[in-house]
Amino acid sequence: MIYLDNSATTKIDSSVLETFNRVNKLYFGNPSSLHELGETTTGLLTQSRRLIAETMGVQSEEIFFTSGGTEGDNWVVKGTALEKIHFGKHLITSEIEHPAVLESIKQLENLGWEVTYLPVDSRGIISVENLKRALREDTVLVSVMAVNNETGSIQPVEKIGEILKDYPSIHFHVDAVQAVGKIDLKLGEQSRIDMAVFSGHKFHGPKSTGFVYVKKGRKLAPLLSGGGQEAGRRSGTENVPGIVAMAKALKITSEKQIKIQSKLTIELEEYLDKKKNIEIFSPKHRAPHILCFGIKGIKGEVLVHAFEKKGVFVSTTSACSSKKKTESSTLLAMGIPKITAETAIRVSLSEENTQEELEKFIKIFDEIYHSFKVIL
Ligand SMILES: Cc1ncc(COP(=O)(O)O)c(C=O)c1O
């Protein structure tokens, strides 16, 4: 098997899985319990929070555990809207955000919030000038992702931060789910980012784990109310084994080199570039692990299944849109015609992929490519 769908999810690291199993078995106490078992699990949470904070260059009190990227995005978007309801009801986002952001924002739009959806250019990048023009007195949130999950395009997060320095009350949210271990994202005091969302299963951690960075002093209304866990901001008994394992996965990922992915995706891009009837949709400057492309006239879905038959796992752009059989909204926003967008497939690597796998992939790609000769 050659697994090249790491943007959808990654395989859990074996030592991370061991940690998960050990904590699940031995440390089952509820962190809210007063007895020793509870104390021990509270200690594990504290250590995990500290490890994550150190790895991200922020403070422990700025890390809040969640069930993953979707919850994190929902929390930041809706939590900001609720928190700032008396200050303003204008939100800014891009047209190519993950549905966890876009659908949250649409819900608010239906309830009366005003939204500016920033368009992207042919590389999938927003214009910072457009953003500047969109800012209003009643703007409460700017939500722009770091790395797009379908094409790997990288948004100018630092430049956006520069502009927002003149608007200190606006929450600047960055969906960083596809950024971990791939691009350098500066958080902390020197950065203008107020909230950043992360998901454990995208960096070889367990599924349904995640965390949100919330800059000290920033207020965010909770969405999950209850027993007051996570300093009252996210109630619910903590997923202790998942959190401990995620912290370990983050540490391991942050220490690994991403060069291998860059090298392999660049090699693949160069190979595809030379072939006729191939269109590469990812921009030249992109995250090192994603390459989105298509064969003219061949639906992405057909390609995905052709690869699958040969033991290679890729996807049609995002995991969310592939089962719904909808074409990529990111590609449409980039101005790519619907019929072309339907050809797209996404190859996404992790540090575990090897040169040998890439060579095999290219060989298999060639076989599939030539089998479509009649159509081409
Ligand atoms: C950019 C982005 N944001 C949010 C999510 C949602 O994360 P999760 O699967 O942890 O809910 C994903 C998942 O693909 C993503 O790629």
Short account of what is shown:
It contains 13 helices and 12 strands. It has helices at residues 14-26, 36-56, 69-83, 99-110, 128-134, 157-164, 240-255, 259-273, 300-309, 319-324, 329-333, 338-341, 355-371, and strands at residues 2-3, 63-66, 90-94, 114-118, 139-143, 171-175, 195-199, 210-214, 278-280, 290-295, 312-313, 344-348.
Q: Can you describe this structure?
A:
The structure is a single chain. The chain has a 7-stranded mixed beta sheet with strand order 2-8-7-6-5-3-4, sandwiched between helices. It has a 3-stranded antiparallel beta sheet with strand order 9-10-12. The protein has a two-stranded parallel ribbon with strand order 1-11. The protein starts with a strand and ends in a 5-residue tail after the last helix. The protein folds into 2 domains: 123 residues, Aspartate Aminotransferase, domain 1 (Alpha-Beta Complex); 242 residues, Type I PLP-dependent aspartate aminotransferase-like (Major domain) (Aspartate Aminotransferase, domain 2), CATH 3.40.640. It is globular. The protein has 13 helices and 12 strands. It has 376 residues and is of the alpha/beta class. α4 links the parallel β3 and β4. The structure holds pyridoxal-5'-phosphate. Its cofactor is pyridoxal 5'-phosphate. InterPro entries: Aminotrans_V_dom, Cysteine_dSase, PyrdxlP-dep_Trfase, PyrdxlP-dep_Trfase_major, PyrdxlP-dep_Trfase_small. Keywords: Pyridoxal phosphate. Pfam families: Aminotran_5. This is Cysteine desulfurase family protein.
Q: What is the count of structural domains?
A: 2
* Mean pLDDT value: 95
CATH architecture of the largest domain: 3-Layer(aba) Sandwich
Q: Helix/strand/pairing class, anyone?
A: alpha/beta
The quaternary state of the protein chains shown equals: single chain
From the alpha carbons, calculate the radius of gyration and give it in angstroms. 21 Å
Protein name: Cysteine desulfurase family protein
Keywords: Pyridoxal phosphate
Cofactor: pyridoxal 5'-phosphate
Domain Aminotransferase class V: 2-361
